[in-house]
Amino acid sequence: MKQELAEEGSRCSILSKQHRFNEHCCIRCCAPFTFLLNPKRLCLDCQYNVCKTCCTYSKRDKAWLCSACQKGRWAKQLEVFETENKALDIMVEVLKAPPQDASSMSKGKGR
Ligand SMILES: [Zn+2]
Ligand SMILES: [Zn+2]
């Protein structure tokens, strides 16, 4: 129990340090923020500050997304796409299978 609390405490201190680091530097490429040349942007998904080159504006969300979170979103979309495709394959197999089975069942076993 004490160990768990200690672990939680150390985790928080690490996070706060990271947060302080993130106040001044991009969480993705570690480039320091400058007022005009490299302004920081807050990522919608991970809530970290990222630099101009590491984020893109999402028109749908009307917010900034860092490259990592954008990739994460693509991966999720791809996953959905793949599972839909797999479901389609299974459906095609199911649709193909019954006639073959039915013919072999009725005719093939007549020996
Ligand atoms: Zn960056
Ligand atoms: Zn992010």
TrEMBL record:
Top-rank taxon, per record: Eukaryota
MF terms (GO), sorted A to Z: actin binding; myosin binding
Domain FYVE-type zinc finger: 1-76
Coiled coil: none
Name of the protein in its database record: Rab effector
Pfam families in alphabetical order: FYVE_2
Signal peptide bounds: none
PANTHER family xrefs: MYELIN-ASSOCIATED OLIGODENDROCYTIC BASIC PROTEIN MOBP -RELATED (PTHR14555), RAB EFFECTOR MYRIP (PTHR14555:SF6)
Source organism per UniProt: Collichthys lucidus (Big head croaker)
Localisation: Cytoplasm, Perinuclear region
Any single GO CC term annotated in Swiss-Prot or TrEMBL for this entry: cortical actin cytoskeleton
Keyword terms of this UniProt record: Cytoplasm
Listed SUPFAM superfamilies: FYVE/PHD zinc finger (SSF57903)
